[in-house]
Amino acid sequence: MKNTKWITLAAMALMLSACGEEETKPVAQPQEDLVENENEEEKEEVVEKEEDFEEEVIEEDAEPQYEINEANWTVKPIADAPSKVVLLTIDDAPDKKSLEMAKTLKSLNAPAIFFINGHFIDTDEEKAVLKEIHEMGFEIGNHTQTHANLKQLSEEEQRAEIMQVSDSIESIIGERPKFFRAPFGVNTDFSRALVKEQGMLLMNWTYGYDWESKYQDAKALADIMVNTEFLTDGANLLMHDRLWTAAALTDIVEGLRAKGYEMVDPTTIKGVTTE
């Protein structure tokens, strides 16, 4: 699955570069007014191409290609969208390895969602890391302020856990998170209602292993993530900001692709609030 943001930026860059080459081509013994008219025509053509391209992108983004199946948290294709896909997600960001993981995924052209804990974006350095991850084109999710079990909190405390991190994220990247994942996968009726009210898409996961001691090794983790019996079309893959996960990330993505899977662009999922 191609990432629409990255495709847009790349295509625009190539188009503008090509147009720039046309504008600088020498004209043999031009007449001044003729050159001026040609330049004006070229500028109009560039503007027209840009507008046409933007309309195509807007039209493509307007129609969701996937939706979340809450029965097993897989990503289900809508209409004729490719079904042999997985969704990559990174929790507990941006702790120590998120920026490295984002750069790895970017180099692999593999989109993902980074779910943020508020206590990891307290300092200016941490805020800069979050901003850089977002500017690389990754979607940002809310993973609560302190990673508390929501079922152990009052409704007022749950609201604070969710709203505080959303407010912080907005102050750093200029937009509110579009996804929410509860710590431990534990939601309450109140948190579900609040998440819906806030325009976020509720997420859980299909499988993940990197918190288990026997998979806290890059080779073992990559093997189980790619070869687990739970790998299925639309699987929602849970990973964390961890040393061994960062080390395994390339092998995980390449291993999944070797099996014919591509990575879902999170912005194509139904229910994601768009600005």
Structural class: alpha/beta
Would you tell me the overall average pLDDT?
84
The percent range for strand residues is 5-15%
Number of helices: 8
Task: Describe the secondary-structure layout.
Blueprint: H1 4-23, H2 32-62, E1 66-69, E2 74-77, E3 85-93, H3 98-107, E4 113-116, H4 124-135, E5 139-142, H5 155-173, E6 179-181, H6 189-197, E7 201-203, H7 218-227, E8 235-240, H8 243-258, E9 262-263
Parallel strand pairs: 3-4, 3-8, 3-9, 4-5, 5-6, 6-7
Antiparallel strand pairs: 1-2
Helix pairs in contact: 1-2, 3-4, 3-8, 5-6, 7-8
Describe this structure in words.
With 275 residues, this protein is an alpha/beta fold. Helix content is 46%, strand content 14%. The chain is built from 8 helices and 9 strands. The strands form 2 sheets. Strands 3, 4, 5, 6, 7, 8 and 9 form a 7-stranded parallel β-sheet that branches. Helix 1 packs antiparallel against helix 2, helix 3 (98-107) runs parallel beside helix 8 (243-258) and helix 5 runs parallel beside helix 6 (189-197). The longest helix has 31 residues, at 32-62. 36% of the residues are buried.
Please name the defining characteristics of this protein.
46% helix, globular, seven-stranded parallel β-sheet, 8 helices, alpha/beta, two-stranded antiparallel sheet, disordered N terminus, single chain, 275 residues
